[in-house]
Amino acid sequence: MMPLLTTKGLSRNFGGLRAVDNVDFALMPGEIRAVIGPNGAGKTTFVSLVSGRIQPSSGMVVFDGADITGLPAYARVRLGVAYTFQITSVFANLSVYDNVALPVQRTLTDGRSKGAVRTGVMAALERTGLADRTHMLAGQLSYGHQRLLEVAMGLALKPRLLILDEPTQGLADSEIDNFIELVREIAKSATVLLIEHNMPVVMHLADRITVFNAGRILAEGTPEQIRANTEVQDAYLGTTHG
Amino acid sequence: MKDASPAKPYALHLGVIALLFALSFVLPDYHHGLLARIMVLAVFAMGYNMLFGYVGLLSLGHAMFFAAGLYGAGLAVIHLGWSVPAAFAVGILCGAVLSLVIGVLALRTSGVAFMIVTMMFAQVFYLVMLYLASWTGGDQGMVVPQPARVLSFGATSLELTNPTVRYMSALALFSIVLLVTLAIVRSRYGRVLVAIRENEERTKMLGYDTFSNKLAAVVVSGTICAASGAAYALLFGYVGSSFASVQYSILPLLWVLLGGAATTLGPLVGTLFMYYVVDITSGYTSAYLLIVGIALILLVLFFPKGILGTIRHRWLGWLP
């Protein structure tokens, strides 16, 4: 099977800092892949390179067999690469409805159908459990609900690859359980690339885990393999093993 | 918000148009003439509001789009002897082309740089109009001859110098632009423009080419302003460089801020308010600008969102 996403020799420098260093990465369709690593390991920079928010210093990004390295972010979104932000950035002054209507109307090619936007919006809001808050301003939602709205906006793009950047950050435990269910649900129709610090969430969800450290891929494997990997334990815990 | 019943806003806008129509028959001559001028300039403000209010792009060069329409229409009549409709179309076309070119260049910047770049282009435009004095009349300007300001339909002809014809022409333009802006801001495109204003980076990550959307908004805005300028030349018969000066870039900003940015009726309210404050106070004192200044400060203090913006915020959430 051909990978949905591959990167070859992907690097990005910020001044003297090599935030992402020569990364070769492959992601199979339908997979839930978690990306973990200590702070500053280059996880967010890596997914920003994939989504096109920043340009690489060298290397290439291939999505579904096509080289997308030179494409601007909005064009990658149209190909099916959706990105939800680490720092919640819903449109606070717009209603929940309008927030989701923006991605929905973009995916509609039929300009006439007035009902289609509404149907699409409500479908995305039902899936994330926000349907009863349609007319609230997004800025008035609780933090957990704003995170869900982010996901709803990502879903509404009908992505083939959904990148979730620390989606459970700031969520209560009860909300996290629902969230895990939601991501499983999403993974039925899209490939998921998940940056996450919460280890129980990672271990529950991920089919495979990629560990970043200092801009490089340190290890990759199933949750069991990663759990048993001493190098990973060193990077995370700073301990040395005899 | 956006999917609320469309009946109320449309009823309100049609009501305003009907009221302006009715006023034509009851206003004394002086106010009749003033209101015709205000409606034309409110179109200028509506064009400005399109970009400033909805997309959040603060331009300090919109006088050039107004003046492009003014000169385009005026000079076509004066030098080429074109008919009124043809001259009006040329004026609008000049504004559309100019705003496309300026948009492509100026949108490479944002924020303060955008303000300065648009202001520089407007100054260039102003100085070029002065430089071409043999065609434009320089700082003296030119009068559009009365006999040329006639709308002919076959055998019947309407003289634009006639107060009623002038008022109704101004009202017709105002109504069309008002309903067009209402339709735009309620459309999907309007939703994208507001999203760009609120968070451009996020809008890009929803798959929108924000540059193209902003460019389209600059062209719509510039074209509306040019329509106002072209109408001004044809209805009031004067074409002059003062309309291209920086003062006329700042006035629409003031009108829009007063009336309420990102409200469809705010530009009319702001223009009306400003004109009447000047008109009333200048009747009492020669220091009327002092009173205008104080009025502006009070408004900013107590109505920071403009008159209609504050009304929408406090009472009428459905106002478009």
Automatic annotation (TrEMBL), chain A:
One GO cellular component term: plasma membrane
Record's keyword annotation contains Nucleotide-binding: yes
Domain ABC transporter: residue ranges: 5-239
Entry-linked PROSITE patterns: ABC_TRANSPORTER_2
Sorted UniProt keywords: ATP-binding, Nucleotide-binding, Transport
Pfam family, one: ABC_tran
Protein name (database record): ABC transporter ATP-binding protein
Species assigned in the record: Mesorhizobium helmanticense
Automatic annotation (TrEMBL), chain B:
Keyword tags: Cell membrane, Membrane, Transmembrane, Transmembrane helix
Any GO molecular function: branched-chain amino acid transmembrane transporter activity
Localisation per UniProt entry: Cell membrane
Bilayer topology annotation: Multi-pass membrane protein
InterPro entries registered for this protein in UniProt: ABC_transp_permease, LivM-like
GO cellular component labels: plasma membrane
Name of a matching Pfam family: BPD_transp_2
Annotated transmembrane regions: 12-28, 34-57, 88-107, 114-133, 167-185, 215-238, 250-276, 288-311
Protein's name according to its UniProt entry: Branched-chain amino acid ABC transporter permease
